[in-house]
Design brief:
The chain is α/β, with parallel strands linked by helices and about 120 residues long. The chain is built from four helices and five strands.
């Protein structure tokens, strides 16, 4: 049984905030994928993952975020992260993933950020 909770909140302008809490590991990876697949296409222009409640993210959890990013960016959307914990932020930064998944201190900062001028595929 997964220890992950996911809440989807549609926002104006075709955005969705995905609030994730708990342990993002193998058990929660499928749930996260299913939740994103349930977001209407008109709310996939910008998906912000609020990770403030995540207590642990495994390599599988990171892989799922990258997989979801690929789906969304292939359709012209973008993905950002907000409220990323110190350890998770260090992991993403050391792996160079901050270029693929920009990180912001707050959800509003992520929602209001201009799209990158040269997005990385």
């Amino acid at each position: 049984m997964s220890q992950l909770t996911i809440q989807l909140t549609p926002k104006p302008g075709g955005a969705t905030v995905v609030t994730v809490s708990g342990v993002a590991d193998l058990a929660g990876a499928g749930e996260l994928e299913r939740a994103i697949k349930g977001v209407p296409p008109d709310h996939m222009r910008h998906v912000v993952f609020d990770l403030g409640g995540v207590t642990f993210i495994s390599s599988i959890g990171i892989g799922v975020l990258l997989k979801i990013r690929s789906w969304i960016t292939n359709d012209g959307g973008r993905v950002s992260l907000a409220h990323v914990g110190r350890m998770t932020k260090e992991t993403f930064t050391h792996a160079g993933l901050q270029k693929l998944l920009p990180m912001y201190d707050r959800v509003d900062d992520a929602l209001n950020a201009a799209p990158p001028t040269d997005p990385t595929p």
